[in-house]
Design brief:
Bound molecules: adenosine-5'-triphosphate, magnesium ion
Number of strands: 7
Distance between the termini: 15 Å
Strand order of the largest sheet: 2-4-5-7-6
Radius of gyration: 15 Å
Largest sheet: 5 strands, mixed
Number of helices: 5
Amino acid sequence: AEVDFSELVSRISDRLQLHSCNTQQIIKADIEPNIKIYGDAFTLASVVTNLIENAVKYSEPCAEVNVSLRQIDSKVVFVVADHGTGISDEEKMFIFDKFYRVGAENTRRTKGTGLGLFIVKEVLQQHDAEIVVKDNVPQGTIFEVTF
Ligand code: ATP
Ligand code: MG
């Protein structure tokens, strides 16, 4: 079915904002309206939720997270960028594996099953979409999804 992806990303950004840092604005969303994607609204919502939750979870409390959605010709690009711990180049290739979590220190500090990005990758494959991980400047991580 056709999903209003702009609406979906806005709604999830707003909801996670409320849970993240009281009244302080930490999720900065820049969302082009009326972007439509053919797919499943429920599983696409889990992709958006997982990526934004990770960005918040692996950052300092109340650090800014940037969410953007835009359409360039027939391509839809969804980006979540944080200024958190970052992911080393060696670990970037494993983070989409089932149950994988980076580093002992990280694992003690935060809770998780290591399933989030595994599910993200599966759902994106079903939607013929691609995901790339890049380093943010001066620190942190950028996840870029292209439909
Ligand atoms: P779950 O999402 O199942 O609750 P999780 O967050 O540990 O648990 P994933 O979302 O699959 O699992 O992420 C795998 C690992 O990748 C994380 O444990 C973390 O080490 C690393 N990671 C994911 N997103 C980020 C990010 N934005 N910044 C830094 N590290 C990240
Ligand atoms: Mg996660």
